[in-house]
UniProtKB/TrEMBL annotation:
Gene3D superfamilies: 3.40.50.2020. Belongs to the ComF/GntX family. CDD domains: PRTases_typeI. This is Uncharacterized protein. PANTHER family: DNA UTILIZATION PROTEIN YHGH (PTHR47505).
Amino acid sequence: MLDLILPLQCGGCGAPATPWCAACAAALEVGEGAPHVLTPRLDPGVPAFALGRYAGPRRQAIVALKEHGRTDLCAPLARALAFGVHRLIRWGVVPEPLSLVPAPTRRSSARRRGGDPVTRLARAAVAGHSGVAVVPALAMRAFVRDSVGLDSRGRERNVAGRVRLRTVPPRTPALLIDDIVTTGATARESVGVLRAAGVDVVAILALAHA
């Protein structure tokens, strides 16, 4: 009956009768060479990595989670993020113990989405991992607009001075976590705020890069 009223569709490709199909699961798998090194247009000052391009099932799943309330897609996205975090640890890019610091989001967006999806994904990704903690240390000040449609300079001006520290993470190295890295404006501002508070930010990891 529920399928007739609210048809179940894959969050990656729209295939019927499944929340997440096998083909999209395969597309979201973290390949042997991933996470990939990024060179954002605005240098964040630390190494930046992404699990893949903001396209195909990865893009559709992120949009569905953030904008359409598809919280069921948290599991496959968090699984991919977990692989990325553990691989950076294995490669020696980031150490343990480690703090995951979610990139800040606008308060209006978080309210509309029922919470911050990046924080939700980070917590699900490292649940049960005693050496890694999630610390929501950053927030956006008021009057930050949606960055969609802004160029690099516009994104930079939009967030300049607008990221604030909510709490200081423990004195462990920090990995900044984001859903999408586009120009690197938010990442650079976030790294600057954390470093000004004495936090050792070692890298950035995003689900996707645009």
